[in-house]
Amino acid sequence: MNSVRQVPDAVPVLIAGGGPVGLATAVELAHHGVRCLVVEPRETVSWLRPRAKTTSARSMELLRRWGLAETLRSRAPLAVSWSDEAVFVTGLLGREITRIGGCFGLDLVGSDLAAEPGQQVPQPLVEEVLREAVGDALLTGWQVAGLQEDADGVTVRITSGDEEREVRAQYVVGCDGPRSVTRAAIGAKYEGRQDARPNFNVVFRAPGLAERMPHGPAVHYWVLNPAQPGMLGRLDLKDTWWCIAQGVRAEDADPVQLVRNLAGADIDVEILATDPWTARMLLADRYATDRVFLAGDAAHQNPPYGGHGFNTGIGDAVNIGWKLAAVLHGWAPASLLATYESERRPVAADTIEEAARNMATLAPELADPALMGDDAEFEKVRPAVAEAVLRTKDSEFHSLDLVLGYTYAGSSIVSSGAGERLPHRWLAPGESLYDRLGPAFSLVGDQRSPGAAVVVAEAAELGVPLRVVDLPGEPLALVRPDQHVAWRGGDPSGAVRMALGHPR
């Protein structure tokens, strides 16, 4: 991986943290032709703690927008066609209780609902693909140690071992995680709570386990054994697996025995990594100053159930990225940047609450001792447990209303009745409506409509890049760089000015 060896003295945007959200912010800025510097302490990406494993359909649409969706899919160990099911069992080698299909938008291949289905892929691979896209804007082996904002910019102190440098930036985006230096520097604080229950992750190798397993492909296997409840899944189609044991403290954990308990047999296990954690429902009380912005885990944390974690941060990255580019290129006023917090913080709040609801019923709550009895006992209790699974877990695996349906309705830069993601459809085999959109603003619809010329003229007057997408017979819609609708129908006068935060 190429890294910046000479630390620049100044840069338009400095990004603190090179995890998936920081890298996505850099890719978004590059998409608009804005230089940046990503400061990241890790020289390489570790595969030992894969963390997130679900890249949502919405994140995949944004990766498509950057030209990276197919790259990620081609390198993902599990093809999207491999499975879209979650299977609930007494043990990995035990009896099946029920299953849920169409999980995480993995079944959206070819659907008009989305330009891309979701993708099961370990977070380290997402980071590697984004690192390659960012290229020499990534500075590894350094970390942000402090910053000082003034009226004209931000002075950022970065360190590497005993070496210390200062970099001047016009803007800073803090993607530096739960212990964010950036968040502390702007005086923001987390608000929220932490779950009382401990969790213990294990990444392990188990040769031959897949061949013995009777339940077929699945993205999740939920083990409803009261003696050892938890979840497992495959990291690849070889021998590497992950598991989460719920209610297990690190000091009490025997990783090999834990895996064997979840499997329900004395299997051969090689432990590759362990990771104790507790779920947090946290939201920063503020996201920004005039020149410093928080994104990803620096701004919000939620439980992993539902697969929303870093995907919410990718939405942050695109929102702040296009707005910074618009301001830096001079076709939007600085006041546009104030809409980042007002648009993204409510989305994070909704995501935290949905993930917390998903966490309210986990494997320990669904487990029933009778499931572990003889066949007669199992069959007697299985229908009631299956009903409880389907009733309590359906929303966790089917959350497209949040993933694809969040809106910026009520934002000061969208008109009444707008704010949602532009409804998707296929125009031809393999050609998405989204593929026709420009990197900046797009005017979509019948260009013979009287309002079309008004919008085009206003964009030209303001110097706003605008791509025209002619769809004869369709109503007009002004679409933002993030594919959300800024204006549709009604009086087009001032629509572009409104969408960029100019005074009305």
Textual characterization of the structure:
By secondary structure, the protein is an alpha/beta fold. Among the domains are: 10-77 and 122-192 and 281-358, FAD/NAD(P)-binding domain; 426-499, Glutaredoxin. The chain contains 14 helices and 23 strands. Strands 5-4-12-13-14-11-15-17 form an eight-stranded mixed beta sheet, sandwiched between helices. Strands 1, 2, 7, 8, 9, 10 and 16 form a seven-stranded mixed beta sheet that branches. A hairpin with a 2-residue loop joins strand 18 and strand 19. The radius of gyration is 24 Å and the shape is globular. The two termini are 47 Å apart. 49% of the residues are buried. The model has no long low-confidence stretch (mean pLDDT 96).
How would you describe this structure in keywords?
23 strands; globular; eight-stranded mixed beta sheet; 14 helices; seven-stranded mixed beta sheet; 504 residues; FAD/NAD(P)-binding domain; alpha/beta
- Average pLDDT, all residues: 96
The largest beta-sheet arranges its strands as 5-4-12-13-14-11-15-17
The portion of residues assigned to helices is: 25-40%
Based on CA atoms alone, the radius of gyration comes out at 24 Å
Euclidean distance between termini CA atoms? 47 Å
CATH superfamily of the domain at 10-77 and 122-192 and 281-358: FAD/NAD(P)-binding domain
Strand content: 25-35%
Largest sheet: 8 strands, mixed
Shape: globular
CATH topology of the domain at 10-77 and 122-192 and 281-358: FAD/NAD(P)-binding domain
CATH class call of the domain at 10-77 and 122-192 and 281-358: Alpha Beta
| SS field, number of helical segments | 14
> Got a strand count?
23
